[in-house]
């Protein structure tokens, strides 16, 4: 009898342990489910805010075009030596800045869906560099290429990827103002189904803390920037199944690294 009682006691003890474990797993699953529901609710709330913000930005942007046109007409009729010319010119610059901000915000808040196609990423970057080098403010920048310069094909959207390269080159150009021999070096590497693109400048660079902030919306070190360029670029690259990161050192320069899947 004692043996049987002890045996049954062990069985009951093990069953109780199993029930306790099941109860804990149930409670954990219930907690995770509640957290998931809250996350979904938060995403829906943010989506609603994003849609509303996009509408507001759109309504704000439209009058800016009319304001800019009116200011440009007035600017042409004022002598450049007149004190009023400085005020009108400042107003024009601020309207242009607001126009850029609302356009970037609309792109960030309401991304467009694009169809992908077969693209040569090397050609896209070289074409964008050629356009950049032809602008008056960027004409003194030297460009060099390293690694594979042959065609590298990916599946992507041309307009979106050109926007990414434009944003990166623009930031690099801003960082190299007043630098001796401003240079941007572009490197292409193919490895294990991916293409890695390095865009390196010898600009003023930034510290580690700043480097960690650059992909956050509305973060900018430029007086003319909207703070959305790299945020938009990050989303575009991730939508293409790739990654983007930034490495920088003060007074040494900055390197932006992009990886994208090769066309299968």
Count of alpha/pi helices: 6
Low-confidence stretches: none
> Which class do the helix and strand fractions yield?
alpha+beta
Query: Which percent band covers the strand fraction?
Result: 15-25%
Structure report:
It is built from six helices and seven strands, in the order ααβαββαββααββ. The protein has helices spanning 2-76, 83-109, 121-133, 158-175, 208-211, 229-239; strands at 117-120, 142-147, 153-156, 183-191, 194-201, 243-249, 253-261. The chain has a five-stranded mixed β-sheet with strand order 2-4-5-7-6. A two-stranded antiparallel ribbon has the order 1-3. β4 and β5 form a beta hairpin. α1 packs antiparallel against α2 (83-109), α3 (121-133) crosses α4 (158-175) and α4 (158-175) runs antiparallel to α6. The longest helix has 75 residues, at 2-76.
List keywords for this structure.
single chain; about 260 residues; alpha+beta; 5-stranded mixed beta sheet; two-stranded antiparallel ribbon; 6 helices; about 20% strand; extended
List strands and helices in order, with pairings.
Layout: H1 2-76, H2 83-109, E1 117-120, H3 121-133, E2 142-147, E3 153-156, H4 158-175, E4 183-191, E5 194-201, H5 208-211, H6 229-239, E6 243-249, E7 253-261
Parallel strand pairs: 2-4
Antiparallel strand pairs: 1-3, 4-5, 5-7, 6-7
Helix pairs in contact: 1-2, 3-4, 4-6
């Amino acid at each position: 009898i004692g043996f049987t009682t002890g045996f049954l006691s062990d069985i009951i003890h093990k069953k109780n342990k199993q029930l306790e474990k099941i109860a804990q797993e149930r409670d954990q699953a219930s907690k995770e489910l509640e957290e998931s529901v809250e996350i979904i609710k938060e995403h829906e709330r943010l989506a609603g805010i994003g849609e509303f913000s996009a509408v507001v930005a759109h309504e704000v942007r439209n009058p800016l075009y009319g304001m800019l046109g009116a200011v440009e007409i007035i600017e042409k009729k004022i002598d450049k030596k007149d004190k009023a010319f400085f005020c009108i010119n400042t107003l024009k610059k601020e309207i242009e800045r607001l126009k850029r901000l609302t356009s970037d915000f609309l792109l960030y808040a309401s991304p467009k869906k694009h169809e992908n196609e077969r693209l040569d990423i090397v050609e896209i970057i070289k074409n964008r560099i050629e356009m950049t080098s032809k602008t008056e403010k960027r004409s003194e920048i030297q460009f060099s290429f390293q690694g594979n310069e042959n065609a590298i094909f990916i599946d992507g959207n041309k307009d979106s990827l050109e926007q990414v390269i434009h944003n990166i080159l623009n930031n690099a150009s801003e960082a190299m103002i007043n630098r001796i021999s401003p240079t941007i070096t572009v490197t292409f590497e193919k490895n294990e189904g991916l293409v890695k693109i390095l865009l390196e400048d010898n600009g003023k660079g930034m510290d580690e803390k700043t480097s960690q902030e650059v992909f956050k919306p509305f973060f900018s070190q430029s007086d003319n920037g909207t703070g959305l360029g790299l945020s938009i670029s990050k989303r575009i690259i991730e939508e293409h199944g790739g990654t983007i990161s930034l490495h920088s050192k003060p007074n040494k320069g900055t390197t932006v690294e992009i990886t994208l899947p090769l066309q299968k």
